[in-house]
Write a structure and sequence with these properties.
- Helices cover about 35% and strands about 10% of the residues.
- The strands form 2 sheets. Strands 1-2-3-4-5 form a 5-stranded parallel β-sheet, covered by helices on one side. Strands 6-7-8 form a 3-stranded parallel β-sheet.
- Helix 8 links the parallel strand 6 and strand 7.
- The radius of gyration is 19 Å and the shape is globular.
Length: about 280
């Protein structure tokens, strides 16, 4: 995410070497979805560079490779899983959670497979699971079954809230593309662990994005008051303003929970001048 072209010259300087972009992103936000690991496992050298560009409190939510989750569906995946775990090891404490995003076809009948897979992961890693099969959201028995497995392993259920996005028809090319790709599922706001992870998708229009996240501001503030440490990712279809929106969301939560630490001061995207 930190290499998005739309951010260059706005949130990060341009030109900027690739090995410096994460450092600048980390001055805007203190967490990132490591989504590129879904498509290919990076080298240890690359991950070491990520660690070097971020402080020890920075949070990576690192997605498991699609080879493991989508192609092999968590079965006979020991080799690619081992390579992935070895590659992300340099993150150390920055690896906030391993993100197990499952395909929409992975349903209630597959929960025993998920349980066995999660039990086989190293205990040192926190786990966050995102499911997209409708039954987990509409069938109370399926939801309870999944919650029981996750809670027993102190693993979190990651909601991907697209309700604001699908509330009205798309109005831009980016929204039209997302309309065909993003899951349309009921809202879920229940946390299972002390470290909830939320993914929220708004609209290209800022006002509609902000209006749609109001419930999450209250939920996140409530979690903080309970002693939880939530991580919330703010998306829009084009993500062009995502860093600024994430900071705005954080500020709105701080109004309700003043003891929440502020985000860092961003590194200027342009050199400071005397005039």
């Amino acid at each position: 995410m930190w290499t998005l072209k739309a951010w260059q010259g706005r949130f990060t300087p341009h030109p900027l070497p690739p090995h410096e972009r994460l450092r600048h992103y980390a001055s805007w936000c203190d967490a990132v979805e490591a989504n590129t690991t879904f498509y290919a496992t990076p080298t240890r050298e690359t991950v070491t560079s990520w660690a070097r560009q971020t402080g020890p409190d920075f949070r990576f939510v690192v997605k498991l490779p699609r080879t493991v989750t989508h192609e092999r569906r968590l079965v006979d995946a020991a080799e690619p899983l081992r390579a992935f775990l070895d590659a992300v090891e340099p993150l150390g404490p920055r690896a906030h959670a391993l993100w197990v995003q499952l395909p929409a076809s992975f349903g209630p009948g597959d929960v025993p497979v998920l349980a066995g897979f999660l039990r086989g992961l190293p205990a040192a890693h926190r786990l966050a699971v995102e499911v997209r099969h409708p039954a987990f959201f509409t069938d109370p028995r399926a939801a309870a079954q999944l919650e029981g497995v996750l809670a027993a392993l102190d693993a979190e259920w990651v909601p991907f809230d697209t309700t604001a996005f699908f509330a009205s028809p798309p109005t831009s090319d980016a929204e039209r593309e997302a309309w065909t790709k993003k899951p349309r599922l009921p809202l879920r706001t229940r946390a299972l662990t002390a470290r909830p992870v939320v993914r929220y998708l708004g609209r290209d229009d800022t006002a509609r994005t902000v209006d749609g996240w109001r419930r999450w501001v209250e939920v996140a503030a409530g979690w903080l008051r309970e002693g939880r440490t939530p991580t919330v990712f703010i998306h829009t279809p084009d993500n062009a303003d995502a860093p600024a929106l994430a900071r705005r969301f954080h500020d709105e939560v701080r109004v309700r929970v003043p003891q929440l630490a502020p985000l860092p001061d961003p590194i200027p995207a342009e050199p400071l001048t005397l005039f």
